[in-house]
């Protein structure tokens, strides 16, 4: 050990840095951890493929008369569904992560207390983007074709990504307030089932009984699905897009501060 | 510069019906090492967590370099660093990645963070392990990395919570060297320990803490003179011999001979070490057979015995969990 190298480096003692910078550094940590544990990508790579195969080839013929027609109909819905389900993971992970000493270290640093959460949420974008790309890519392999243009398709993908980012704040919040990671998973799934299946994702709402249609029509996921479907294969309504954006904004505005507050209280 | 690093007044932290910190008044001068000596559950960790802004006190005030730990937590955080009892590095990342992450978070440029982290790895003897994941580190390596992580930006005040607990003697010595090197460069260190010899080796001043209160405070030599310069421990083969052994040792050393917590143990406070061989010879001559004996510095138990009249019983550290058995170390 050479004591000389322990010379303090006081001149670099930082001035306050913005949240963006701290979050970016902490997002880098989350990405490195993802790379070390590739099983974190199962739900965003294998799951979309399994869902596409099951829905298109198992139910497609029965629901739409032809698997290809159903693929054209259901792919945007499956894209939204798999991404929405993959938002639960961050709540589960943070719930476990926060019990480890490294979060004590983060808390004792002169950085905004929200930075570790914002960093983790930002890094999740990689997983969501993977899920979107795998869904679209595999869809293309088995015959899905978007009929609009590249920008429109990208806008649809961006919309799904945005909603996922918003929704994962709910998972983060649950991860902060619930005691066990298992309950985060459980509550997340229970909440997502009516939101995804009770929407226009898998079947035309016209075929449903009235009471269910009433729910489907107010379900924000219906608007997301319709918006993405329109952006991919034509007929997008600005109303759906605006409602979806508004919903994403509202969820973030409510749950991000709640999650950060719950995180601070954990101290 | 000799200012005041830490000042607390009537500091209180309550967990359920247990007062983990029960009115601590503390003044820690800037510079050097200040030792916090006490058994598990005494309130050391809780106090440190309050001072490092990880926990809010329920009563009283505490300030670090004049900044209140509750109202000016951000200022305090920019001056202090904490190495807790449990590893606070990321197991999945490598040693280098851990330090670089902190360097980036703390405002170094990418290149500076790299240089600083290579310097630290070198200084802490971790260069060879730089690209290994921390989960593959030994206890000593982990502890060194943990301390390195605390000085990525050199703090004015460093809290080390039991930095050598569970380490082998060689790793322990390395940690001591690190602490000395840090204080030589002007960092104030507040160190908690269960070992009197560690506090004695490193600290200029020592506070002895028990059941959330400070029961003695002073320089290491003042503390030891109140406790005795040394102690003879004997471990008997037959616990039934204990009364006789106590009798013999009392005659040899004076009043301060105590039965230990093990029924076969006797400890005597020794002021004049030349009396030790004669005392052992007397025991042998009287047929008191010994399984072992040692002569050395008083242990924490003896410090406690001398200061409080009771031994330091092990309990869970109150700061670790709010669900623990809220039973203090009481006689």
Automatic annotation (TrEMBL), chain A:
The chain crosses the membrane at residues 41-64, 70-94, 115-144, 150-174, 186-203, 241-260. It is a multi-pass membrane protein. Its main location: membrane. It comes from the Bacteria. InterPro entries: ABC2_TM (IPR013525), ABC2_TM_bact-type (IPR047817), ABC_2_transport (IPR000412), Nod_factor_ABC_transporter (IPR051784). Residues 39-266 form the ABC transmembrane type-2 domain. It is found in: Cell membrane; Membrane. GO terms for cellular component: ATP-binding cassette (ABC) transporter complex. Belongs to the ABC-2 integral membrane protein family. This is Transport permease protein. It comes from Mumia zhuanghuii.
Automatic annotation (TrEMBL), chain B:
GO terms for cellular component: plasma membrane. It comes from the Bacteria. It is a peripheral membrane protein. Keywords: Antibiotic resistance, ATP-binding, Cell membrane, Membrane, Nucleotide-binding, Translocase, Transport. The keyword Membrane applies. Pfam families: ABC_tran. SUPFAM superfamilies: P-loop containing nucleoside triphosphate hydrolases. Its main location: membrane. InterPro entries: AAA+_ATPase (IPR003593), ABC_transporter-like_ATP-bd (IPR003439), ABC_transporter-like_CS (IPR017871), ABC_transporter_ATP-binding (IPR050763), DrrA (IPR005894), P-loop_NTPase (IPR027417). This is ATP-binding cassette domain-containing protein. The lineage of its organism: Bacteria, Bacillati, Actinomycetota, Actinomycetes, Propionibacteriales.
């Amino acid at each position: 050990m050479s004591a000389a190298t322990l010379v303090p480096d006081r001149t670099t003692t930082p001035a306050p840095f913005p949240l963006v910078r701290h979050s970016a550094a902490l997002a880098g940590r989350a990405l490195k951890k993802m790379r070390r544990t590739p099983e974190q990508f199962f739900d965003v790579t294998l799951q979309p493929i399994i869902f596409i195969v099951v829905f298109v080839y198992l139910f497609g013929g029965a629901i739409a008369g032809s698997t290809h027609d159903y693929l054209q109909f259901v792919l945007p819905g499956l894209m939204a569904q798999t991404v929405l389900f993959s938002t639960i993971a961050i709540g589960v992970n943070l719930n476990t992560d926060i019990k480890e000493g490294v979060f004590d270290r983060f808390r004792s640093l002169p950085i905004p207390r929200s930075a570790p959460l914002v960093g983790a949420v930002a890094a999740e974008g990689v997983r969501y983007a993977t899920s979107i790309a795998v869904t679209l890519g595999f869809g293309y392999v088995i015959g899905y074709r978007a009929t609009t243009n590249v920008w429109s398709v990208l806008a649809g993908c961006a919309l799904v990504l945005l909603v996922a980012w918003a929704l994962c704040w709910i998972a983060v919040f649950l991860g902060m307030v619930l005691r066990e990671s298992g309950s985060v998973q459980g509550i997340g799934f229970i909440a997502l089932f009516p939101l995804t299946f009770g929407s226009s994702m898998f079947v035309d709402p016209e075929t449903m009984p009235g009471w269910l249609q009433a729910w489907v029509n107010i379900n924000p996921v219906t608007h997301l699905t319709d918006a993405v479907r329109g952006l991919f294969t034509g007929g997008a309504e600005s109303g759906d897009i605006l409602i979806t954006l508004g919903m994403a904004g509202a969820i973030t505005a409510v749950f991000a501060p709640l999650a950060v507050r719950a995180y601070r209280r954990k101290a | 510069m000799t200012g005041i690093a830490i000042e607390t007044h009537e500091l209180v932290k309550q967990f359920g019906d247990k007062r983990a910190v029960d009115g601590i008044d503390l003044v820690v001068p800037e510079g050097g090492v200040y030792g916090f000596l006490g058994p598990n559950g005494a309130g050391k960790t809780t106090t440190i967590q309050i001072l490092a802004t990880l926990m809010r006190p329920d009563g009283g005030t505490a300030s670090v370099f004049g900044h209140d730990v509750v109202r000016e937590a951000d200022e305090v955080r920019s001056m202090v660093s904490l190495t807790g009892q449990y590893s606070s590095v990321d197991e999945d990342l490598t040693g280098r990645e851990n330090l670089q992450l902190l360097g980036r978070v703390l405002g170094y440029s990418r290149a500076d963070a790299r240089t600083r982290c290579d310097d630290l790895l070198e200084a802490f003897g971790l260069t060879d392990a730089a690209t290994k994941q921390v989960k593959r580190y030994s206890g000593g390596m982990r502890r060194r990395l943990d301390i390195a992580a605390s000085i990525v930006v050199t703090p004015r005040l460093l809290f080390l919570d039991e930095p050598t607990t569970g380490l082998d003697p060689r790793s322990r010595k390395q940690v001591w060297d690190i602490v000395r090197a840090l204080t030589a460069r002007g960092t104030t260190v507040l160190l908690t320990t269960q070992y009197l010899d560690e506090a004695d080796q490193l600290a200029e001043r020592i506070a002895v803490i028990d059941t959330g209160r400070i029961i003695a405070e002073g320089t290491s030599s003042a503390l030891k003179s109140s406790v005795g310069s040394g102690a003879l421990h004997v471990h008997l083969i037959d616990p039934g011999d204990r009364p006789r052994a106590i009798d013999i040792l009392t005659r040899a050393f004076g009043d301060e001979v105590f039965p230990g917590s093990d029924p076969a143990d006797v400890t005597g406070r020794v002021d004049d070490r030349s009396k030790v061989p004669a005392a052992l010879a007397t025991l042998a001559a009287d047929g008191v057979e010994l399984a072992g004996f040692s002569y050395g510095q008083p242990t924490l138990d003896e410090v406690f015995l001398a200061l409080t009249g009771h031994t330091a019983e092990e309990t869970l550290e109150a700061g670790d969990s709010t669900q623990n058995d809220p039973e203090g170390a009481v006689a």
